[in-house]
């Protein structure tokens, strides 16, 4: 358990550092105008991401968000390592809304005291998919309510991400089992 905490701390530190890196030529990131938290809560499958070492090799991954009594959110990242037959594992974090006007900027913590900024950059009007990134464009996740999205939706999302200054060649699909 101690080695996991050390690894998680290193991952959180790397996430924090990556989220602080910025690209000089990229336009400022723009979040969505508003996130209805009640509609956003629940399970989101990770369709693609800009991987970093803690997510490398993870398959069938998804995030689950749930309200807590203290006003914060549980953020549970669930995954399998290497293949769909591997045992399911979860990392438990805490999130809270940092921008109460839009609900599109959160702080996320998996290991105290390290906190990352989570920006909802794109969001389908029907909450079928979302794009979450970090301020420095070092990390990005394409999330969906279903394990698969259509190729047309995926391409549309990549175009939106490029308009936000992300390099689409860094985005890697995350294997999900057939629905």
* Strand order in the largest sheet: 1-2-3-4-5-6-7-8
Figure out the total of helices: 3
Molecular shape:
globular
Percent of residues in helices:
10-25%
Alpha-beta content class: alpha+beta
CATH architecture: Beta Barrel
Radius of gyration: 15 Å
- What is the name of the CATH topology? Lipocalin
Please identify which CATH superfamily we are dealing with.
Answer: Calycin beta-barrel core domain
Instruction: Provide the succession of SSEs.
Output: HHEEEEEEEEHE
How far is the first residue's CA from the last residue's CA?
Answer: 33 Å
Number of domains: 1
**Residue windows where pLDDT falls under 50 for at least 5 positions:** 1-24
Calculate the mean pLDDT score and round it: 87
The main sheet comes to: 8 strands, antiparallel, barrel
CATH C-level label: Mainly Beta
Number of strands: 9
Strand content: 35-45%
């Amino acid at each position: 358990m101690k080695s996991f905490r050390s690894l998680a701390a290193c991952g959180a530190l790397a996430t924090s550092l990556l989220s602080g890196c910025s690209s000089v030529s990229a336009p400022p990131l723009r979040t969505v105008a508003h996130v209805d938290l009640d509609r956003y809560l629940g399970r989101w499958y990770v369709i693609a991401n800009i991987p970093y070492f803690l997510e490398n090799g993870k398959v069938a991954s998804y995030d689950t968000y749930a309200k807590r009594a203290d006003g914060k959110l549980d953020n549970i990242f669930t995954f399998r390592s290497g293949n769909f037959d591997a045992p399911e594992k979860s990392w438990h974090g805490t999130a809270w809304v940092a921008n109460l006007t839009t609900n599109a900027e959160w702080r996320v913590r998996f290991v105290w005291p390290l906190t990352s900024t989570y920006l909802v950059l794109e969001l389908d009007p029907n909450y079928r998919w979302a794009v979450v990134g970090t301020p420095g464009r070092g990390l990005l996740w394409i999330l969906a309510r279903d394990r698969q999205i259509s190729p047309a939706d995926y391409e549309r999302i990549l175009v939106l991400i490029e308009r936000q200054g992300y390099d689409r060649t860094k985005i890697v699909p995350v294997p999900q089992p057939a629905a």
